[in-house]
Fold:
Amino acid sequence: MTTPLFPGGVAVSDLMVYDAEAVDGRCGGSPHLHTASSEGYIVVGGTGSVETLSAAGAEVHPLAPGHVLWFSPGTVHRLVNDGGLRLLVVMSNAGLPEAGDAVLTFPPEVLADPAAYAAASTLPEGEGRAHAARARHDLAIAGYLALRDAVQRDGVAALAPFHAAAVALVRSRVEHWQERWDRTVAAETERTRAQLVALAAGEPGLMTAASVVRGQPTPGERGYGMCGRLQTWEWPSP
Structure:
């Protein structure tokens, strides 16, 4: 890999959180988790919160401009938009989330059937995409509300069946993820290790090939992400 990745091997997106109302009267995104990647928020506009289900139980974290919050893999998260909520989202392991490192909180019967999960989570191209995104959101909310009730009633052990279902859904992709991670994030980390060795030896190392990279906006209108309308950038390929 000759072109350096974005610092830290992360990916960045500009997120305008959905403002459609769910069955519980809250506006916002589709609850989900990531199985291998951490996620961070930098709030740049509006107000809201992120509801989480984690080893700490069910929690609500307020979000307002200037707030920074992040969470580790396995954290179920639901963004709630109280008005104009806009975030800069930072994802670790650039490429893995785009390759499917996310599992929505659909009801158990959908999670147990890979074909049903794929049908419910995949958005069509072109006309009908917005409608499908709303249907996906509503199904994830239904599963999330039941899961949150179970955690509040029975404790964090209630998350175990959902975590198991998430593992089953992504397991077949892990070999591809590992290859991608080795070529990108691991390679970038190795570049730093080698540079430290060079500096300790009194050599410039990578500095002799210093370069500047501009990320190109992904063409077209903002995408329909799980939590809102996304502006993403095309990163250099490994």
